User: Fold long-chain-fatty-acid--CoA ligase from Canis lupus familiaris.
Amino acid sequence: MASSSTMKNGLSRSQKAKSPMTREENVTDSQINMNKNKVTPRLWTIHRDGEVLLRLSKHGPGHETPLTIPEFFRESVSRFGMYPALATKNSEHWEVLNFNQYYEACRKAARALIKLGLQRFHGVGILGFNSVEWLIASLGAILAGGLCVGIYATNSADACQYVITNAKVNVLLVENDLQLQKILSIPQSRMETLKAIIQYKLPVKESNNNLYSWNDFMELGNSIPDSQLDQIIESQRANQCAVIIYTSGTLGNPKGVMLSHDNGEKADLGLPGGGRLVARGRHHGICDLNVQSWAALVAQRFSWRPGIESHVGLPAWSLLLPLPVSLPLSRSL
Assistant:
């Protein structure tokens, strides 16, 4: 069963479409004056805290009122709560998180990030290869009002430093000691926004007041109330930035691309040969949702595109951001 916060905050698209009218009925004079001074959104922005103009089509999935990633996540949890969301193989055993568990883990990570001082529209850097921790941290960053900033595991220390500075990263997650040593080689004076580092794979060999293991990190936010996190989630808008994806910096400094909430929500990878991730019929359900089968599906779909192999060549958050990724697919259940 979905959590109380899930049921409380989950809104249907029809309800979401009506909410702006409801808000306008109760605005104060000061709010009206603030709205007069507000800059009208444009089709693009170079500011992390900016808003872009939403463009809706007259027909198809593009005509529906866009959701933020947290709203889409909550909707997925309310529909698929007990179904598998993530699966990872440790030794000989598969460990599976259903949607309820996945969502609660992401909220726990979000509260920990708030405790560490994550500021609105500042980055949470993730330096390492795909993992369950990668995904939980990425969505936790977005829930907490920050920006998910993936960093190539092959980046040099200089390239990492540039991304940390450019995205104003407050919290950095590194996969292992190899990546940690790369970051520790950078003078602290060149990473002024960085407040804490989390190493999400053991063993943690260094000892530092601002360095945490994954387990310690996940317990940091126990004192942060759910209401504080919910307030941040409700303040987010679909036309605001949620993710920054950087190039590797092979030629010059890495280049960042900002992706809005509705950009992530509308991601539709498509299915080859009419295949489905759902079993249609008397008993509806999601089938075969482990990481390997999903990666194989994506690899087949994008086999014609050079440089994209399996799920490693695509942003981790876009592949397992709460499945099913395809909005029409989730609506068909």
Confidence is low (pLDDT under 50) at residues 1-36, 268-333. The chain has one domain: 4-15+48-331. The longest strand covers residues 84-90.
